[in-house]
Design brief:
The chain is of the alpha/beta class and 97 residues long. Helices cover 30% and strands 30% of the residues. A five-stranded parallel β-sheet has the order 3-2-1-4-5, sandwiched between helices. The longest helix is centred in the middle third of the chain and has 10 residues.
């Protein structure tokens, strides 16, 4: 296992929290690798701010990526909580912000 932990971000709602976790880098032992956001303009904002991050079109791209160790679910509403179950079923660690 790599000493750098790759992160997938699923941004459900809270943009401010999503941007703050996106500041993680390899020096902290974490690297933001992929982001899914249903909001195209927010995905564009992330891409311009963090050009090395891959913006994906669906959550499955994060859930089925074996190189991702941790999935951060940012800003989930009550209806979004099934995402947490999907992350756990995929065998990944999950953090809810």
């Amino acid at each position: 296992m790599s000493p750098i932990k790759n992160i997938g971000l699923i941004a459900c709602g809270n943009r401010e929290k999503s941007l703050s976790i996106a500041q993680l880098d390899a020096t902290s032992g974490y690297q933001l690798k992929k982001v899914f956001s249903a909001n195209d303009s927010f995905a564009g904002t992330l891409k311009s701010r963090f050009p090395e991050v891959e913006i994906v079109q669906d959550r499955a791209s994060i859930l089925h990526d074996n190189s991702i160790d941790l999935v951060i679910v940012s800003g989930p509403a009550a209806g979004d909580m099934d995402i947490v179950g999907q992350v756990l079923q995929a065998g990944k660690n999950v953090r809810i912000l």
